[in-house]
Specification:
By secondary structure, the protein is of the alpha/beta class. It is built from 5 helices and 6 strands; from the N terminus they run βαβαββββααα.
Length: about 170
């Protein structure tokens, strides 16, 4: 898959956390890596928004009737492998990813790995949702999704780091 076949629009809508240099490229690499793993060989577009906890809480309340913040939300624009097309480019519009940067930073600390790995994980996780994967019911679906997430992160050089602090 050529990188020019994938357009990743990234919009920073928050001021709570500074987005470190290279994170936009990291998110783009994560999107491309998932599409490569899934052998998605068509032009694709994805929109990724960085928000704060209050913004994602509002989206969660509006779209899922859950009045709490979360780490990431996925808004797929396709179903069963059929996606809306961008009339100007003909690309498959996979959907929107919304990441709470505040939540991601806190989770990285909680799980004992880097902020970089957490942002990549949330992007990969959400990309898999945009492609139709789900983990809500657990079981084999959740296990398959987790294996794919770890595979992509490993390919990106973001191995699971386990640290314990007192």
């Amino acid at each position: 898959m050529d990188k020019d076949k994938v357009k990743v629009n990234i919009i920073n809508k928050q001021k709570a956390e500074k987005i470190p240099t290279g994170f936009r490229m990291l998110v783009r690499r994560a999107c491309v890596a998932v599409l490569k793993l899934e052998e998605f060989h068509e032009n694709a577009e994805v929109e990724v928004s960085f928000v704060d906890d209050e913004q994602i809480r509002q989206l969660n309340r509006d779209f899922r009737n859950i009045d709490s913040s979360t780490d990431v939300l996925s808004f797929p624009l396709g179903e069963n492998g059929v996606y809306d097309k961008n009339p100007a480019t003909g690309a498959n519009m996979l959907g929107d990813i919304v990441i709470s940067v505040e939540h991601a930073k806190a989770q990285a600390e909680e799980y004992g790995h880097t902020f970089q790995r957490e942002m990549a994980f949330l992007t990969v996780h959400s990309m898999l949702h945009l492609l139709g994967y789900d983990h809500v019911n657990g079981g084999i679906e959740a296990e398959t999704m987790r294996e794919k997430e770890e595979s992509v992160l490993l390919q990106m050089g973001l191995t699971r780091e386990v640290t314990f602090t007192e």
